[in-house]
Amino acid sequence: MNKVLRLLVLLPAILFLVMGVRWLVAPAGIAPDFGLTLAEGVGRSSQIGDMSGYFLTLGSCMLIALISEHRSWFYPPMMLLALTALGRIVAWLLHDATLAVSLITAEVVVALVLLLASRRLPQRLP
To answer: Which candidate among 12, 45, 61, 124 keeps its CA 20 to 30 Å from the CA of 30?
Structure first.
């Protein structure tokens, strides 16, 4: 069970790292995957900086949690994903955005996997 759980954390961690690197090296290629057009000027800087930082933080924290066996590293990506899902719902409810069910589902599922991992995987004592 623990090996399967580790794999369920590792796969999205790698995906998030790849997405973060893509935002750094080829933002025009990944922006449409999020329904975005690449902005100009400071907007482009914000898109690339924010999106790459978001995904690199997600993936890095998840890998650090797996490697270090310190459960506390699961909480930052869990919070980022849960708050992103909440933000998407608020955008739909209050700001006339399309309800991004597939994205929200993925974020909630990965957040729940991280919650399970934080409870089930071995904890290395400091």
So the answer is: 61
